Queue: 2 jobs
Job 1
Amino acid sequence: MAALWLALIGLPALAEVFKYKDADGRWQFTDRPPPGATAPAPADATAVVVAPTRDLATRLAQGSTTRTPVQAATLATVAIEATLGQGAGFFISSDGYILTNRHVIRPKAEDQRAQQAQFTQEEESLTAAEAELTRRRTLLKNVETELAALKAPKQATDPYARYLKGQYDYYQAKVNELAPQVTEHQRRLSSAKLEQSIKTGQASLQQRFTIVLKDGERLTARLIRVADDQDLALLKLDGYNTPALRVNTGRTPGQGDGVYAIGNPLGVSDSVTTGRVTRIDRDQIMTDVQLLPGNSGGPLVNEAGEVIAINFAKLAKGGDANYQGFGMAIPIAIAREAFPELR
């Protein structure tokens, strides 16, 4: 019995015990399955359960009616929602890396300078209004002092007293007119400066961003890094197999070549505009493609649907964003070199 007991306690803890009645009606307890039953496969103690990767590439392709390479390229383009507003980006690899502009997700120094210049102008206007209000109150006080000096009844009814009373009413009306305007101006300026400070602070710290796919699904991508010397940023959508734009590695684009900008202009996602290359420099490509706010970060593709650059700015007369102007884009080779993850 002792030997049997030792044998029993030596059985593996994961062994399965079967209980059944044999042909004679007696209960049997064993680690073997009943006659005619199939033993279950032993569990693999070393197996690791891995969450399945969601296949966005297949789903978007199956749900689309794309007929051209450019239309197919729209499947890999996303709208990006950040604290600062909206922009665009695109998948550059099948494991979820997204290229976009740095200014889509981080405050631009020139924008902050422009905002500060506007605040300075508003402060100068407010200071002038406050000075005028002080002047009117001083005139009102002077008239009030003169009226108070006319204590004798006969003096209070003479022409000069009536003149002073008219002046008093006039300045009182002027003060009553300007005072609430100054108060409202102070409130609006203070509120705008506080709101801008909070918005800039939040934008500087934001690490996760909503991306919107071609079919409208909203997902969350995380920030990997921003480029130091270029208007570029790299995001990552984890846990997904994603569509990705093919990179142009053949003939470099030339002047007059047809190109297409895909993006999120004025919040209208999944939009395409077309034009031609007008000028090529080492670090940028200029086109006559129409770019509007929201196109930033979107891809510039050729007729084969290959990405050749990232749209980042508009060169317009006097900086007017509504002026047609020229589109500016960063060559894809520079963008890939900026991030070790894409080399």
Job 2
Amino acid sequence: MNKVKNNKAWLLVLPMFLLVAFSAIIPLMTVVNYSLQDIFDQNTAYFVGVEWYQEVLRDTRLHDSLLRQFGFSFSVLMIEIPLGILVALMMPTRGWQASAVLILLALPLLIPWNVVGTIWQVFARGDIGLFGWSLASLGVDYNYTANPVDAWLTVLLMDVWHWTSLVALLCYSGLRAIPDAYYQAAKIDRASRWAVFRFIQLPRLKNVLVIGVLLRFMDSFMIYTEPFVLTGGGPGNSTTFLSQTLTQMAVGQFDLGPAAAFSLVYFLIVMLVSWLFFTTITHMDKSENKHDK
């Protein structure tokens, strides 16, 4: 007996589709339109084709910001992913201690981005900030407002402090989802702590790690508020990332055409790298599962 499909169910998706169209697709098409025109004022614009894309791709500011951005995002992943796993492994699993640790880990995630920048702006000062004063007391020549390396490391440390909790919470949820039977079997086999992590915990964490890597890459690659509040992009251009370069172009110089082209290139880079991350990790997972069989 053939079943008749009820296509009226698609009506339930229609409101969400309209919301996405209004909030994402229409603004995106507007940016595409701006990127193909030379805009003088509200009523004067001339079609220039791909001229702005050619100009943006030759812009040294884009190249420099892109290198800084990739370096920052790579550093964030190399620190926060292992550190988040380590924190999750050390967290208690039962009792009031587990609840207390979960609350403490969630606190940095609740702080707005501009407030995080302000906190570290004070925290890292050498005269009144605990972090800056402690380094000065140890004889370390530290000044994030004048030294480009200090500024870059401070922004990195601020991001690690702010977002490692997210990775730890994701990994903690993945660890709690592992059945106790696995640990009991490992105990019977007298498996070492490293063997339990390597063959039981880490494979079971792959799904949440994919989410963690993608979230942290996309967010770190689009970072703007924290370094803008903390360093203003300086000293020099040491902490001027892609988002700040785009804002300077669109708001500071009011070059809407090049800024629109730049934003689309920016968007495509994020999508491409995220797709590469996702494809690589899922391919590795499928290969290991096939090998196990």
